[in-house]
Write a structure and sequence with these properties.
By secondary structure, this protein is an alpha+beta fold. Helices cover 17% and strands 24% of the residues. The radius of gyration is 13 Å and the shape is globular. The structure holds zinc ion.
Length: 87
């Protein structure tokens, strides 16, 4: 039997556009599980093209650093947060 119980059934992603300072939040319809940290840190969720689409539905060029992400569960626990000086 698999033991990869999700850390959260759903969570809220706070995305900040560093060019405007605007932050938007969106509730996921997917779980935060073991691989989610990698997804946001290194995977598809780390790229500005996907983060921009997540932010307001608009496509952005690929890159890193424009959008910052913070994931929080319903108990207020931070599941993932970009490193302060991630390059
Ligand atoms: Zn991309």
């Amino acid at each position: 039997m698999s033991n990869d119980k999700p850390l959260a059934e759903t969570y809220i992603v706070y995305t900040t556009d560093t060019t405007t300072g605007e932050t938007r939040s969106l509730r996921t319809d997917f779980e935060f599980h073991e691989g989610s940290d990698y997804f946001w840190r290194e995977g598809n969720g780390s790229c500005d093209c996907n983060r921009g689409a997540w932010f307001d539905g608009r496509k952005r060029p690929c890159g890193e650093g424009r959008f910052r992400v913070r994931c929080i569960d319903d108990a207020g626990t931070v599941l993932y947060e970009d490193a302060e000086d991630s390059a």
